[in-house]
Amino acid sequence: MERSEKNKTYVEDIDRSIYDIKDQVNTSFSTGRGLTSGIVNEISLEKNDPKWMREFRQNSLKIYNSMELPKWGPDLKGLNMNDIVTYIRPNTQLQVTWEEVPEDIKNTFERLGIPQAERTSLAGVGAQYDSEVVYHNVREEVKSLGVIYTDMESALREQEDMVKERFMKLLTPQNHKFTALHGAVWSGGSFVYVPPGISVEIPLQSYFRLNAPGAGQFEHTLIIVDKGASLHFIEGCSAPMYNVANLHAGCVELFVAEDARLRYSTIENWSKNMYNLNTKRAVVEKGGTIEWVSGSFGSHVSCLYPMSILKGEYSRMEYTGITFAGKGQNLDTGVKVVHAAPHTSSHIDAKSISKGGGVCTFRSSIKIDRAASHSKSAVSCESLMLDDYSRSDTIPVMDIRNDEVDIGHEAKIGRISDDTIFYLMSRGMNEIDAKALVVSGFAEPIAKELPLEYAVEMNRLIQLEMEGSIG
Predict the structure, then answer these.
(1) Is the C-alpha dihedral spanning 126, 127, 128, 133 positive or negative?
(2) What is the DSSP string of 60-81?
């Protein structure tokens, strides 16, 4: 099937106008490029950190400087911290009404659909632009339940004891080089506390937008769902395309108490110059549940492995995720689970799609402690390759220290059947639409777990990517 040159489309030519519009960089303060003790001190002074946080940042920097880059996974040599601006304050203060947000920032979030989502389907929204949260609001009926939802800087002032007790205790600077970096330069993010027995019936959402070229974003998310409570939290991320490296190294710490439930949904649509080195971890007490729903569609390199520690008896974890890697992308994702108590359970359903030479790697790490008798874990990962020069790898690790457990792992790697495409084309579909239909069907189990507006976004992204898959 021949096509004229003007009808050829490639992934990098796809109209990402919603995400790729670049606002003029309008800052009130920037540290400049590089990472030094002086720059970390500048951030502390700008944020008016308490003494313990200033010391924490400097200690984290020392740990960062003592660590090497990981010796496994994607190549990170293209990331040079001497070229990264670690802190950029936009020229605005935190606002609680949308009308007060500066027009250029407001227009960006309007295009991304954030205010509309807030008006129609969300209990509260936080919007971060570069290094700072610029807008935060929560419905009065949610506040009246005793729910605290605010930006991390406000939480550090207003809930200092609660923050100090848990901040980077689940994810410590010693975990790896980029949690140490995060501990030194973190800025922005969200804090949530749900009191015992309270069910937040509609989701809370934070959206992270990185606008400046050559910058890093290091937001910290800390969520505490107390005994018997429940919450759905949504995280969205995007950035425009630049010809220089950007860095995202946020941290997410989730505390799920006895009989509590937390669903954490993420769509990461970073541009393809981004190094996405995000770290997420949850600890779950007796009878509690953590659910991860994840879609990774952007970035040049991703290293993302949400970890769950099933600390209490009968606690459980579910992970549902999809990764889509195109030309120039190396997306290394996966899941870690520690079964630390009896009768715990985990279920992992991961899918990946690679095309145009893109690389998808899925890693699973399941650890069953000696004390975790009668625990269950099931891992299923499916990979779909749309050409013969892309790559997909599955790397499972299981550390089983108890014989009274039920463990399963299943992996499938395949391509779209030529017979299937021929059948669909014989029914009147063109080749692009036929492939897109098969891919959408492959991704459907993930899409149905996402909130409606994010499922629509995911399907739209798949359609856009598929336009570049042939021709």
Answers:
(1) negative
(2) HHHHHHHPPPPSSSS--TT--G
Q: Is 105 left (phi over 0), alpha (psi -120 to 50) or beta?
A: alpha
List of E strands, 121-200: 124-129, 132-138, 148-151, 189-194
| CA–CA separation, 153 and 89 (whole Å) | 13
- Output the six-digit token pair for 393: 């790898």
Instruction: Give, in order, the Cα–Cα distances in Å from 444 to each of 36, 156, 441.
Output: 46, 40, 5
Element (H, E) at 349: strand 345-354
Q: Which residue matches tokens 């993302």? A: 304
The reported pLDDT for the residue numbered 6 is: 33
* Radius of gyration of the CA atoms of the chain, in A: 22
460: number of Cβ within 10 Å:
11
CA dist list (Å): 411 to 338, 377, 378, 440:
21, 14, 11, 20
Q: Is the pLDDT of residue 422 over 90?
A: no
Adjacent-strand bridge partners of 199: 230
Average pLDDT rounded to a whole number, residues 412-432? 78
Pair of tokens at residue 301: 């390199």
- Cα 451 to Cα 61, 246, 447: the distances in Å are 38, 28, 8
74 to 309, 325, 329, 352: CA distances (angstroms): 25, 13, 10, 17
Q: Give the model confidence (pLDDT) of 171-180 as tens digits.
A: 999 999 999 9
Exposed e or buried b for every residue in 6-44, given b needs 16+ CB within 10 A? eeebebeebebeebeeebeeebeebbeeebeeebbbbbb
- Residue 415: predicted pLDDT: 75
Give the span between the Cα atoms of 208 and 218, in whole angstroms: 10
Find all residues with CB under 8 Å of 198, minimum gap 6, and list them: 145, 146, 147, 226, 229, 230
- Please give the helix or strand (H or E) that residue 360 lies within, else none: strand 359-368
**Structure token digits, residue 209:** 């937008």
CA 162 to chain centroid, in Å, comes to: 24
pLDDT class for 22, splitting at 50, 70, 90? Answer: very low
The structure tokens listed for 203 are: 């989701």
What pTM was estimated for this model as a whole?
0.85
Give pLDDT tens digits for 333-373.
999 999 999 999 999 999 888 888 889 999 999 999 999 99
pLDDT at 102 over 90: no
- Cα separation, 246 vs 89, in Å, equals 16
